[in-house]
Write a structure and sequence with these properties.
Elements: H1 8-11, E1 23-25, H2 27-40, H3 43-46, E2 50-52, E3 69-75, E4 80-86, E5 90-96, E6 101-104, E7 107-110, E8 116-119, E9 125-128, E10 135-141, H4 143-148, E11 154-156, H5 170-175, E12 196-197, H6 199-209, E13 220-223, E14 238-244, E15 253-255, E16 259-265, E17 268-272, E18 275-279, E19 284-287, E20 293-297, E21 301-307, H7 309-314, E22 320-322
Antiparallel strand pairs: 1-19, 2-3, 3-10, 4-9, 4-11, 5-8, 5-10, 6-7, 6-9, 8-12, 13-14, 14-21, 15-22, 16-19, 16-21, 17-18, 17-20
The structure holds 2,5-dihydroxybenzoic acid.
2,5-dihydroxybenzoic acid binds near residues 73, 139 and 141.
């Protein structure tokens, strides 16, 4: 037994006190290290050649927030990262290079910068690069959440790069054109069948609404959804894309979902509590739970972000405060 009274206020805090800290990773620096990893081992050797973005407040835990994992994955021309599946859900945000693909349950998608790709829990996935450029993307997974529940399973496929069973674009045509197959009836918690959200479409949507009145806390911000249900693409991780016109500064905002952001376009400044950083293209930063975030765009800017918000909302835990 152990005395509750010595730990009660830490166990039941008046408000969130995350051990995670705010941090920013500059892409110029990340790229150098990731390319060095590319000289040291092959993607096949590594299974996944990734440098983990570890929260400085959570050393040794492979976490970017308490519930989420982030890493930068590199695949060089001619390489494959062999097929596997796991109960962890994953997302990719393509940062650099052209010509690689991710295959999800038998369908490939060619990666373009800014594309948001999901590999929902227990879907087979492999990556390959038949092109001539190194390709780098950001991985986001719910690894810490699945570890918390001790619910992790994984399998390797006998075929390291199984041939596609459907043509490229099939899922987007069937599920991503404001239509679904006639007998398709998704369960409410089912992950999206649309597994790629092309950057071209995201940017066009944000541009199209950017003539309106920006939200003081968000600018112009859209949430990625499963088009068949309106729910988040995967039950544990949600993602957004946000447009901030040049000169726009957001009002401070805090929420219980620790969030990872990527600057896909533009530049500016990010303020988290008392800390602030200059923000350039492809820089990645994390805002822990219940930390005030403020963004300023010095040029027209487009940010991507992901968090565990849908998981918190499903459990009735999510809160935000607009200051
Ligand atoms: O690409 O399947 O960054 O399984 C970590 C675990 C990527 C992947 C990661 C993974 C993957």
């Amino acid at each position: 037994m152990a005395p509750l009274w010595e730990v009660l206020s830490a166990l039941v805090p008046p408000q969130p006190r995350s051990p995670a800290v705010a941090a920013l990773w500059r892409y110029a620096e990340l790229r150098r290290h990731v390319l060095e990893a590319g000289r040291l081992l092959t993607a096949e050797e590594a299974e996944r050649r990734v440098l983990i973005l570890e929260n400085p407040g959570l050393r040794g835990q492979s976490c970017v927030t308490r519930s989420l994992y982030a890493g930068l994955q590199l695949i060089l021309p001619g390489e494959v990262a062999p097929a596997h599946r796991h109960t962890q859900s994953a997302l990719r945000l393509v940062l650099d290079g052209e010509g690689a693909y991710t295959a999800v349950d038998g369908e490939r998608t060619t990666m373009h910068r800014g594309d948001f790709i999901v590999t929902p829990a227990w879907t087979w996935h492999d990556h390959g690069n038949p092109g001539d450029q190194p390709v780098v993307w950001l991985d986001g997974l719910d690894i810490p959440m699945v570890r918390f529940f001790d619910a992790g399973f994984a399998e390797k496929n006998a075929q390291s790069a199984p041939p596609p069973s459907r043509p490229e674009g099939d899922a987007l045509a069937r599920y991503g054109a404001n239509m679904v197959p006639i007998d398709y009836a998704p369960k409410p918690t089912e992950a999206t069948r649309v597994f790629v959200y092309p950057f071209e479409r995201t940017r066009a949507s944000l541009k199209a609404i950017s003539g309106g009145v920006p939200d003081p806390h968000h600018g112009f911000k859209l949430r990625y959804v499963n088009p068949a249900t309106g729910a988040s693409p995967m039950p544990t991780i949600g993602a957004c894309a946000q447009w901030l016109p040049a000169g726009f500064e957001t009002r401070p905002l805090r929420s219980t979902d620790g969030t990872v952001h990527v600057c896909l376009q533009g530049h500016g400044e990010v303020k988290v509590g008392e800390q602030s950083w200059r923000l350039q293209e492809n820089d990645v930063f994390v805002v822990p739970s219940w930390h005030d975030l403020q963004l300023r765009a010095d040029g027209d800017s487009l940010l991507f972000s992901f968090s565990d918000r849908p998981a918190q909302q499903a459990l009735g835990l999510w809160r935000e405060q607009r200051l």
